[in-house]
Amino acid sequence: MLKTFDRYIIRQFLGSFFLILVLIMAIAVVFDASEKTGDFAKGNATWQVIVFDYYINFILHYANQFSGLLIFIAVLLFTSKLAGRTEVIATLSSGVSFPRFIRPYFIAATILTALSLYMNHEVLPKANKKRLGFERAYIWSTFTIKDHHLLREIAPGTIAYFESYDAPIKTGFRFSLEQWDSTGLRSKMICDKAVYDSVSNTWALHDWQVRDLGGPLRARIPGTDRDTILAGAVTERLRQGALTDTVIPLKPIDLGQRTENAAAMSRQDLNAYIAAERSRGSNNVAFYEVEKHQRTSYPFATYVFTLIGVSIASRKVRGGTGVHLALGVLLVLLYVFAMKLTTVGATNAGFDPLIAVWLPNIVFGLVGIWIYQKAPK
Predict the structure, then answer these.
(1) How far is CA 74 from CA 66, 199, 255, 366, in A?
(2) Contact 335/364 with Cβ under 8 angstroms?
(3) Long-range Cβ contacts of 269-275 (<8 Å, 24+ apart)
(4) Quick check: 217 and 236 in contact, CB under 8 A?
(5) Do the beta carbons of residue 213 and residue 238 sit within 8 Å?
(6) What pLDDT, on the 0 to 100 scale, is given for residue 2?
(7) Do the beta carbons of residue 64 and residue 118 sit within 8 Å?
(8) Second label for 35, Cα 20 to 30 Å away, from 3, 205, 222, 256?
């Protein structure tokens, strides 16, 4: 059963956090609204859509995203006040050990971690789907694919290739489709351009040509009734035409999409998308794996921030809250930099995504343990 001291610390912790959260989100909404007012007016968005489809989900997304920083600031502020009023010294002098002193902090941190995990895995994918749908309709410019030489394995042994793809008009240029089996290339289709029809889910192939390669070419041995295989020769058939419609298990979204859409995928959808992208040989697999693992690693950073915050702020120093806040913000900035560095390494340098998103937590957790050992006991 929680004692009066525990309830006091938990109430101060959670109260400070939610107060800061409300203030920061209010400021964020004001700045965002002032920036996007022109987009809302241009798209004729109604206030109901703006409030319920966009800003409610906007608040949920960014409140959870910055919760670690805000938790850290909350711990620093109210613990620094306790230290400034010598309440920390009085508590420790009364015989309360430092591990016992920080226990209610970690009870509150556990509540916030569980809430963040639930938000990341259950609530935010649905909320982000509405928010991103609104941004797609009223804010975003037309999506383009800048990469060239797009290669996708759309089925075992079936390779699709675009030299370039124009997303706004759903048209790919210098398109080819190859069929391979255990013996080698069996068929290759090439065309000048392929246009996707989103109504019929078909591709219109312009100026197409198909080269079918059959089995090895055989020839009769003169004076016998036996055949022999001509080395390096195969049967071949050539077909061509000006225009044809065909069904190919490939959609424009398979060639590329906004990476923000990962935030709108449920855990099951994200796992399925990662598996599909990996089978196609996509270069974006690491980004989606980072998104998947961050949904768990970020909430657990709450423990790291709590440990560092209470260990720093519990020491009474000249300058009070200002010194604690400056040191705390510096550590948070270093954490954010480390997280960005490791995730970029995962998406661009082949670093393992799971290690990339957990490494900053481990490193700064060790830093927190060291600061904790130096804290007043």
Answers:
(1) 12, 52, 44, 21
(2) yes
(3) 269/125
(4) no
(5) no
(6) 53
(7) no
(8) 256
CA distances from 233 to 5, 178, 180, 215, 216 (A): 87, 19, 17, 9, 6
Residue 148 to residue 153: CA distance in whole angstroms: 16
Joined together, the tokens standing for residue 329 give 């913000």
- The label of the residue with tokens 């998103």 reads 357
| Range with the poorest average pLDDT among 1-5, 87-91, 103-107 | 1-5
Residue 268 φ/ψ region, left for φ over 0, alpha for ψ in the -120 to 50 degree band, beta for the rest: alpha
Give the pLDDT of residue 92: 76
Residue 320: both structure tokens together: 């009070």
d(CA 308, CA 112): 16
By the 10 Å C-beta count (0-12 exposed, 13-18 middle, 19+ buried), 356 is classed as: buried
Nearest residue to 24 via CA among 59, 57, 76, 52: 59
What sign does the CA torsion over 299, 68, 18, 371 have? positive
What's the token pair of residue 269?
């959808």
For residue 12, pLDDT over 60 is answered with yes
More confident of the two residues 21 and 223? 21
Higher pLDDT pick, 107 / 42:
107
Which residue in the block uniquely carries the two structure tokens 């197409």?
208
Distance, in Å, from the CA atom of 248 to the CA atom of 160, rounded to the nearest integer, reads: 9
CA distances from 126 to 52, 57, 278 (A): 13, 9, 25
